[in-house]
Write a sequence for this structure.
């Protein structure tokens, strides 16, 4: 009897803790869903987060995987006034970003480009020790202002996914870098890749194959016209794609498709479904380091 009394207390305590944790997660999810609903559908940043909840595990494909974390960032810098929890999740402060970059540099990581990964898959590039890739989606101006100098300071480069009709524009709190910013980043050794012309959702059935083909090919042409660069790399908006979408992307000359599937091991035989590692705002350094292992 005494024994039962002894374990009863701790069990009740654990149950209370678990209930509080579950309730907290529930209310947090409700808050995010409410915020998503209150946003207009055209808001890119919010739609990005919706995808975090939707992401299915990457289908298993045969082939040897190589350890290569591809970090996914959106905003780097200060939060706008009245930032929602979604925007907070997408924004890594300049200080946190420098802490992460500094740690990587100190621990022997070397940045490579997505193009290097492609060449590696062809046997034309040898991976350095501890390779890593920084990707920045959407081409926000804060990334060009805040992240590039830090990358440069530690001898790193980044890969920037540009929505080719957006440079120099603004949508609410989202300010897009100009083509001058993008050109200067490119000329100083950073990589520029396509994120479509207008960030359309590639898995939405309302878009015809013709539309997908035209939009993806045109984004490639836009980059070629602006930078003289022939990119064969596409980062899928919202991480959404279908088999037909991949087919259209390939027919436009894209050889690499970058997703939001979570993972830090790359299968060089499945280049149109490359996973990444999402870096959230307000992440501790310990949590960030865990993403790499
Ligand atoms: Zn995007």
């Amino acid at each position: 009897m005494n024994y039962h009394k002894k374990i009863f207390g701790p069990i009740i305590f654990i149950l209370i803790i678990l209930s509080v944790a579950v309730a907290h997660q529930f209310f947090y999810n409700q808050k995010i869903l409410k915020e998503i609903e209150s946003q207009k559908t055209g808001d890119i940043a919010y739609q990005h987060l919706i995808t975090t909840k939707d992401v299915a595990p990457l289908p298993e494909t045969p082939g040897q995987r190589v350890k290569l974390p591809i970090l996914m960032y959106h905003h780097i810098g200060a939060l706008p006034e009245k930032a929602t929890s979604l925007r907070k999740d997408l924004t890594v402060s300049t200080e946190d970003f420098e802490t992460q970059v500094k740690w990587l540099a100190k621990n022997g990581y070397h940045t490579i480009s997505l193009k290097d990964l492609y060449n590696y898959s062809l046997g034309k590039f040898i991976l350095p020790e501890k390779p890593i890739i920084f990707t920045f989606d959407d081409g926000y101006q804060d990334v060009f202002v805040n992240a590039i100098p830090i990358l440069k300071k530690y001898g790193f480069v980044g890969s920037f996914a540009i929505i080719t009709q957006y440079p120099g524009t603004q949508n609410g709190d989202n300010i897009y870098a100009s083509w001058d910013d993008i050109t200067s980043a490119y000329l100083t050794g950073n990589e520029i890749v396509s994120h479509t012309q207008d960030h359309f959702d590639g898995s939405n059935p309302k878009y015809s194959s013709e539309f997908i083909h035209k939009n993806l090919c045109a984004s490639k042409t836009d980059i070629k016209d602006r930078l003289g660069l022939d990119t064969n790399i596409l980062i899928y908006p919202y991480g959404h794609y279908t088999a037909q979408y991949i087919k259209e992307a390939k027919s436009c000359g894209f050889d690499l498709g970058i997703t939001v599937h979570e993972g830090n091991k790359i299968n060089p035989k499945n280049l149109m479904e490359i996973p990444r590692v999402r870096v959230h705002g307000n992440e501790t350094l310990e949590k960030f380091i865990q993403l790499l292992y």
About this structure: Residues 44, 48, 137-138, 195, 199, 237 surround zinc ion (CB under 6 Å). Residues 1-38 form one domain. The chain has ten helices and 14 strands.
